[in-house]
Structure formats: C-alpha cells, structure tokens
Amino acid sequence: MLVLYGGLFFALFIRIFYIQATGEVDGQQLEAKAAALYEKEAVLSAERGQILDRNGSVIAQDTLSYRLIAVVNPQATTNENKPRHVVDPKETASVLANYISMEESEIYKILTKKLSDGRTPYQVEFGVSGRSISHETMTAIKNEKLPGITFASDSTRYYPNGPFASHLIGFALKEEQKDGNFKTVGKMGLEYTYNEELTGKDGSMQYESDIFGYLLPNSEKMVEPAKDGSNIYLTLDKTIQNFLEEAMSDAYKKYDPESMVAVVADPKTGEILAMSQRPTFDPDTREGLDSWNNKVIESVIEPGSTMKIFTLATAIETGNWHPNAYFQSGAYTLLGDTIRDHNQVGWGPITYLEGFQRSSNTAIAHMLEDIGNDKLIDYFKKFGFGEKTGIDLPGEASGTLLTKYPINYVTTAYGQGSTTTPIQLVQAMTAIANDGKMMQPYVIDKIVDSSTGEVIQDEEPKAKGTPISKETAKQVSEILASTITSENGTAKRYAIEGYEVAGKTGTAYIPRSDGSGRYLTGNKNNYFYSFLGMAPAEDPQLIVYVGVKQPKLEATEPGSQPVAEVFTSVMQNSLKYLNINPEDVAEVQATPMKDYVGKNAENVQVELMNEGVTPIIIGEGGNITSQYPEKGISLTKGSLVFLKTDGAITLPSFKNWSLRNMLVYKMMSGLSIEIEGEGFVESQSVSEDTIIGEGSPIVVKLKTPEESYRTAPIEETTEDGEELPQDS
After folding, report:
1. Cβ(179)–Cβ(292) under 8 Å?
2. Contact yes or no for 383/429 (Cβ under 8 A)
3. Does residue 305 have an active-site annotation?
4. Which pLDDT belongs to residue 210?
C-alpha cells in the first residue's frame, strides 16, 4: 500500500511539475484558455462624421439610440424575488413584438436558443431590429417591467431636417459585418460617395472579467480610443434649401407633376446653395424612395427655350446679333423640314429683339444662318454642353449635341433634340451672370478631421473658361431682363417686387418612352416647363433653375405657373435672407467677439451681459479653457456665447435654443445629449440646474417653427404669351 500510494503521489507530482513547466494539458495552452475565459475585449465604437451646411448646421449626424439586450441565463439571478433573466420567454416575445420590427415567433426563437454545446448563453440580441431604438421606445419597453430586458447605448444615423436635399445627401444604414459587429455604411448620395471619409475607426478596451462579463477587482484596462469619422461641410445653405424644399412641396402637392428639379447656385463661385427634386424621400425612414438618381446631374433633358440664352450669347459674341433688323415670323423651312413658332402663325414681320422676347423659334433659325452651324456647336461646347461639368458628385451625365442632320442644328439652337442636364444649364448661366467667366459647380466646401479640427480637403472656386466677353454677358443680361419687363415678353410672371430678374422660360417636348423617337402630344400637360433665371439682373448674386415635368393644370392655368411659383418664392426669400439689395431691412448692430481664453469666467460673464449677449458657462467656473464663437466673429444682441471651464456641469435651460446652439453645447460639454427634431427647443428630459454626471443621457426635443420668410405667388391679370413648342 505504501509503494502504491507513494507511486501515485510521485506520478501526480510529476504531472503537476510538467504542467507548471510547459503550461500545457493535452496539447492545449492553459494560459490561453484562461485568457479566453476571463479576458474580454470590448469595441469602442467610432462615430460617423457629420455632414453640415456651409454655416455648420447639421444635415446628418450620429445620435444617441439604444440596443435591446435580453439576459437569458438563470445564473444571472441571485434573488428569486428580483429576477435578472428572462423568466417567461413566450410572454416576453409577445410584448417585445409590439415595439420592434420582428415577429413574435422569431423573438421567442432568439430568447430560447442554445449554444453549440447545448449551454444557455448569458445574453442575446436581436440584430438590426434590436438596434437604433429611440428614447421613447426604450422608455416604453422599460415600463413593461420585463425581467431580463435591458439596454445598451448605441448610435444611429439621424437626419434632423427630414426630406432635405435627400437625393444629394443620400442615407446610411447599420449593417452587420463579417465579424458580427455592426457598422454604419453609406448606401446612397454623399453618404455613399464619401463613406470612407465619414467612417471612423473603432477603438477597443481589453479587461479581465468573471464568466458573466463583470469587471474583476484590481484588473487593468487597456484602452485604444476610437477615432471618429471626418466632418464634411457642404456649400448648401440650410435656410435657402428649406425655402426650396417648401416651395417644391407646395407646387408638387398642388400640381401633381410627374417630376420636378431645382437648383440654386452662386454665380460668382459655382457653389451650389440648394438642390432638390420631386418625388423625394425621408432619409430616416426611406419612405418615398422610388428612384436613386439625382436628376439634377444624372438625368438628361431636352432643355427647350432656355437654350436660346446661349444661342443669343453666341450671336452677340460673333457679331451676328441684329436686334433692330426684321424677319418674317411664323414658319421656317430647311430642306423640306418646317419649324413653326409656338402660336403656329407668328406675328408677321418683327425685329429680332421682339422675336427673342416672344421666344420665336423662327428668329433663332434665321439667326443661325448668320452664326453658322459649326460656330454654334463650337460655342455650345465652350459653354460646357456635351460634356460633364466635373461637379464633385458621382454618376454625372454628359448630354448630347445632336448634329446628324441639318435640321438638328436648328432644333439644337432653340433647345429641342439635343440633351443637357440641369447642372450644365446652371454652369453655362454662370458665364452670363459673371462677366463672361464660367464657374464649375461644386457641393463640397471642406472636409475636416473631427478630432483635431485639421482641414483635410479644402475646395476653392474653379473657373472653366471664358466663353464670352464681359460686354456680351452684360448685353445678354439686359435682353433676358426684357423678357420679363417687356410687353412682348414670355416671362412676365417671373417678376419679383424689389428686384430685377433676368432669365428665360423653356417649354420642351417630352420624348415617348417607347423608343420610337417621337414626342408626347395632346395637351399642355405633356410638356417639360422650366425657367433659368438670375437676380439682381445688374449684378446677379443667385442663379435659380426650376423644371417641372407634366404638371396637371386647370384649363385656365398656363404651364409656367408651377415653375413661377417655385422660382419667385425661392428667389425673393433667398435674396432677402442674404440681405442683397434690401429695401426694408433695418441695420443690425453687431458686437465683435474677443479672445476670452484664460480669463475669469465670472468677469467675462458680466462683460458680455453688458454688451447685450447671453453667456453660457459650461463647467464650475474659474478660468475659461475654450469659447464659441471664436475671436473676431460678430454677434448680434441676444446671441449665445459658450464659455468652457473645468469642473462639473450644471445644466442650463435649453428653452427656445436653436438646433445649432444645441449642437455647439453638446460638442463643448461632451454630454450625452440626444437631439430630436429641428427648429427650436421645446422640452428637455433633465431639468435646468441639475448637476450632470458623465454618461447621463439627456433628451432634448425641438419643434419646427413657421418659416421666417414667405411670399405669395405673383398674380397675373394679363396673358403672358407663353410658348408651346411646335413640331419640326
């Protein structure tokens, strides 16, 4: 017995010594198995970069949401009276089905699933359906008091403005990756094109825990911080974009057209200030999404008489414009092909100036005889037609200058047959508005590293050439203004009180969809109506293009009516907003911002209040570490100034704060603030004067006010001689 037990003890000693020396059992490393069991690695999610307008107003951002988690392992419960796991999977599935987009049977299956070895997992999640849960839904589920149901903070892509340049901005969605993690991925528009720049790099946190995932006492954490994605600033102006969205929605509802497009641009720089189309969609829900094309740049149109602007410019530049000479209006025949004026019979012998004001096709045909076919096409190419503008957006179409037959040159000269894109028309119009210098359109202002503030990419205005002289541009502008002011003009309903507008109407045939090469005919609802205009005419600050396809018009309504309602509303409101040539805007006193960093917050607070602005201290007080706005920015009375200091943060009242001020406060304070809606703050989940701890979620709801600027459509009591195209 002594030898037997001695032998067993000796064998056990040798085994223990071997394990200690090699760290292996049956070929497996014990240290690795222990690390796998107790060492955890948590992903620190990076936020996707923001998309902002030219003034820093948020268009797209990540916002606080919640992830649904169900603890299903009974070992999580230590007190039967206070269960910490899902006790009744069937009842729990029935309740959760009312809140998340998943069938009750699928939820039950997840709640009762087993691991591959038959064990019950500690907790389960619900994929995409259990993510991006709003604060309201989370609160409602918590109120159901379901055992084992808990939440973790998450983020979701949020578009606070609803349908807002939606085909330009696009949208991004959470997608499950190969490693099982979820990442926000751009699926359309700028979100897709600049997905790499917007996507951040996740960090990680390694730590030791028990088998349930709880942090062990005295264990060390190793943290690699996440790097958020870059912020993209656009040339869009949120206020002007809102003017456009409202006007487009009103016209779309009223006239029910097949489609609409519109662009607002700065002719001096080529910056796109607003861009929209109808139908549109809500990027948060994708409701209304039936086409992924940005029609302003990806779809071609036959532009109609807006093309006559550039035929006129070519005639003037080449010395072939004779405004006081007469021609016979009505019809023009070339090699057996006949084109007619829009009233079919013309107006007898009239001057070329009157012919242009009346939008006479035969006037353009006679002018082309003097210009020459090749010269016309040469100048159209100088204006950028037939090739892409190079705008910083994908999928741009180039259009086609049709020159196969002699009659093609004539129809191209007045905007039929050949195709363009709306953005090409806007680019070409910048040459008319900008003393002959044509500017390339662009929508990306700059890309900024969200961590350091470093500008990674900074776009500048780019000239595309000078197709015409300054003198020609001025003359064209004057003639375009006369189409609105002249008794014979076709654009009288585009006049705006207080501003002189210059522009040209367009009414174009729509090709049939059967590929026959023929056009829709029948009634005035089967045309594409448009207007390309600029204001003020003497020194244009804005170009606005509006196109409406197949509006449903009453018998007494001209085709230009829906176009005019959008154009006049957007142009007038935008000019007033930009304080361009105002007639009734009072002078506003402004206070220049000083550099307050390093100064005592309480002293600065008194100084700012005496100057009529409202200081907001973020912290306990003492020396100021950062401020917003920065030194040199002018502020009007009543503006908010944010002063960051060290120490605990006491929450102020956010009542009536703007969305922009809320975003500034969120950024400077570092607090977890969920912002819902747009406009101005209506309510906040945590009352003012509350000292906020790190990570405490705060929900702030904003409401949308009525727009500051509104205008009624101009009422016309006289016929404006609107043109309709005629078959060639």
Report:
1. no
2. no
3. yes
4. 56
**Bridge-partner residues for 496, per DSSP?**
499
Nearest to 430 by CA among 362, 384, 485: 384
Boundaries of every domain in the chain: 41-53+60-157+200-228, 238-577, 590-703
Q: Yes or no: say if 120 and 77 are a contact pair by the CB < 8 Å rule.
A: no
> Among 45, 305, 329, 530, which one carries the catalytic annotation?
305
Tokens 């957006």, located at residue: 393
Q: What is the pLDDT of residue 218?
A: 55
pLDDT given for residue 220 in this prediction: 58
Max Cα distance, the chain (Å): 135
Q: Could you give the count of Cα atoms lying within 13 Å of 17 in the half-sphere of its Cβ?
A: 6
Angle between helices 422-433 and 308-317 in degrees, nearest 10: 40
Would you report the helix, strand and coil content of the chain in percent, each value rounded to 5? 30, 25, 45
238-577, CATH topology level: Beta-lactamase (3.40.710)
Would you state the torsion angle of the CA atoms of residues 651, 162, 230, 642, taken in this order, to the nearest 10 degrees?
-30
Low-confidence spans in the chain with pLDDT less than 50: 29-38, 582-588, 705-722, 727-728
The pLDDT score that the predictor gives to residue 421 is: 97
CATH class of 41-53+60-157+200-228: alpha beta
Quickly count helices (H) and strands (E) in the chain: 20, 35
Cα of first residue to Cα of last residue in the chain, in angstroms, is: 119
Burial 48-84 (b: 16+ CB within 10 A, else e): bbbbbbbeebbbbbbbbbbbbbbbbbeebbeeeeebb
For the chain, how big is the Rg over CA atoms in Å?
A: 33
Q: What angle do CA 102, 105, 110 make, to 5 degrees?
A: 80
Q: Please tell me the CATH code under which domain 590-703 is placed.
A: 3.30.10.20
Q: What is the pLDDT of residue 342?
A: 87
Which of 716, 702, 596 lies closest to 659 in space, CA to CA?
702
